[in-house]
Specification:
Layout: E1 15-19, H1 26-43, E2 47-50, H2 69-83, E3 87-90, H3 94-101, E4 106-109, H4 117-125, E5 129-133, H5 143-152, E6 158-162, E7 165-167, E8 171-173, H6 178-183, E9 189-192, E10 198-199, E11 208-209, H7 214-224, E12 228-234, E13 248-249, H8 253-274
Parallel strand pairs: 1-2, 1-12, 2-3, 3-4, 4-5, 5-6, 6-9, 9-12, 12-13
Antiparallel strand pairs: 7-8, 10-11
Helix pairs in contact: 1-2, 1-8, 3-4, 4-5, 7-8
Length: 275
């Protein structure tokens, strides 16, 4: 995975994609980035700032979608330039790929769109790293074909993110068998520890979640040997304009990452003894 400004890649730690669900404003994005950069530098965790410049998949027409594409993308670039870190954002159509690629280092394909050939090919042709979220409706084995579309379009810089599998109408489950299965494809595999706890299809039209289990999901992923973690975090999730119900409060992030690094070190120690 070729990412300029991705630090501590030789630390042995998992890498982290983290930030707010959506860019709500410059001060908010810069504040979150500054705090996470401080934490990840202390723990030597390779860090990529995450923020959606626009939310296209919302439950209701009156849901917040963004502050304007260009404005939000410029904020993402400012985060990258100020803190010398890579940034990632979602894209939703093939036309958006080229536009977003001018501002960000990683293009993320939303789970519901992971089979869209035109979108995957357009993302690949930008030359940016492409992070494909596994569809809630797909088996881990099926993600091989999504990744292969990017490779066949001339781009080998692919990541795959597990974000839970639909179970009934209002739940998601993480099948941890999928992590080693997808790692066999030869690409880094990420576990989304926040969206995996979403509870969609609520009667209110607002997606719910179980953020109290974020640490449970993340610990299990690190124990299994996942390459990276994805987390959405916000200083006040209850006031977040998108996905607040399943976000991690920002003031809990340092303690959680500290404990996860300890688990990572234990896993690596056990692995080295087996060789």
């Amino acid at each position: 995975m070729k990412l300029e400004n991705l630090k501590y890649t030789d630390s042995g730690n998992f890498f982290l994609l983290a930030g707010p669900c959506v860019i709500e404003g410059e001060y908010m994005a810069m504040d979150i980035a500054e705090k996470i950069v401080g934490i990840t530098e202390s723990l030597q965790i390779p860090y990529i700032f995450k923020g959606s410049y626009r939310k296209a998949n919302r439950s209701r027409l009156d849901s917040f979608t963004g502050i304007g594409d260009e404005k939000a993308l410029k904020i993402l670039r400012k985060v990258a330039d100020t803190y010398k870190i890579p940034v990632v954002t979602d894209i939703h159509t093939a036309e958006e790929a080229k536009m977003a690629a001018e501002y960000v280092d990683v293009l993320q394909i939303p789970a519901f769109l992971c089979r869209q050939t035109d979108l995957l090919v357009a993302a690949a042709k930008t030359g940016r790293v492409v992070n494909i979220k596994k569809g809630q409706f797909l088996s881990p084995e099926a993600m091989k074909f999504a990744a292969q579309k990017v490779v066949d379009a001339g781009n080998n810089d692919v990541m795959i993110t597990e974000r839970g599998t639909s179970f009934g109408y209002q739940d998601l489950l993480v099948d941890y068998r999928g992590i080693p299965i997808m790692q066999k494809f030869g690409f880094p595999v990420i576990l989304d520890a926040t969206h995996s706890l979403q509870r969609p299809n609520q009667d209110s039209g607002v997606t719910g979640g179980m953020p109290e289990l974020i640490e449970t999901i993340a610990r299990a992923g690190i124990a299994v040997g996942v390459d990276g973690l994805f987390m959405e975090t916000h200083p006040e999730p209850c006031k977040a304009k998108s996905d607040g119900a399943n976000m991690l409060p920002l003031d809990l992030l340092e303690g959680l990452l500290t404990r996860l690094v300890c688990i990572r070190q234990a896993v690596m120690s056990l692995g080295s003894k087996d060789k």
